[in-house]
Amino acid sequence: MMPFFRIQKFFAFMRIAGDPAASAGSFNSIYFWKTLLALALILCAGTGILLLFYNSGHETALALPIASMSVLCVLLSAICVWSIFSHIKRCNLTAVSTEGIVTELQRQINGLRCLCELSDISNDTGMTKDKILHCAATKISSGFCKPENTGTAITVYNTSYRTENFIKIPNSISAPLKIRGEVIGKIEVCFLNALPDNDFSSEKSFLAEIAGRLENTLERFDTLECLIRYQSELKEQHKALTEKNVALREIVEQIEFEKKKIKEDVAVNVEKLILPSLKKLMQKYGQKDRGYFDMIQKDLHALLSSFGVRLHGIEDNLAPREIEICDMIKNGLPTKEISEILDISPATVDRHRNNIRKKLGLVNNSVNLSTYLQSLA
Known about the structure:
Elements lengths: L3 H15 L10 H26 L8 H60 L6 H13 L8 E7 L2 E4 L9 E8 L2 E10 L9 H85 L4 H14 L3 H6 L7 H11 L4 H8 L3 H14 L9 H8 L1
Antiparallel strand pairs: 1-2, 1-4, 3-4
Helix pairs in contact: 1-2, 2-3, 3-4, 3-5, 5-6, 8-10, 8-11, 9-10
């Protein structure tokens, strides 16, 4: 017979083995009684075997029933033990499945926390693009089941932002980064202690979600940079146009100054050179052609006025003879004197006067032709 304390210790072991939940404080009465039954059957079988051993030299009528009972007890105890160990196996499988569910839930919690932190970083207007990408590389690792064994690298426009534990290994996944359909970089994640045959399907889906959020952030920064660049270009163009306007204004002022100077030079030449020569001709040829000389003198004075410029605007409608007569009328010459100078009849001069009035729009108008032409001067 086993000592009592050994039987009690074995009973406690069988109770915990029969129901693993008993170690956590729960108690399964069915498997407890199964354990008791198995112990009782084993005890009965052992007792029968001992009785057969002690009576092996004596033939008794009870030998066969005792042997049969011992065998039956052994079979029943084996069934109880098989039932207990089957339950232990099921409990172990359940524990493994529960562990997988807990691991997946933990991964999803980490992923949601990671996405929230990335959103907060992206919406922080005080952070630059480089700082956001550096922080994102650190936060992405925390979104997976084992952040301490996960390395992350973000590459944008040939610039890399990575964690210290990132290395290129076969156990890696990646997702491209695109802006308006153009690939500008990628996100890479390596798993240092993962099994080689893992397909990382859930991790790839999670990484694609992160890539989509980073693409929105990068597109916002790209648009902002384009706006700043366009504003800078517009400022440069405005500055160049302002400088051109200043230069053009200076050129116009210079042209006006030169025009004024030329006009002054012409006036001086007329006063100092041409008019004295004209007076000498008048004195030499007498009074016969005085009217002609007076007209030339007045034309020289008109040269300094705006009459020629204004008459130029309507001279396309006037014949050369009509322009000549306009000049004489403006200088106050009467019809008779004009006819003598041009060696034509007074009727021809009147006909030219009428044609001039028609072309100048003075028909049925009381405006004097001489007055009108003088107003052009």
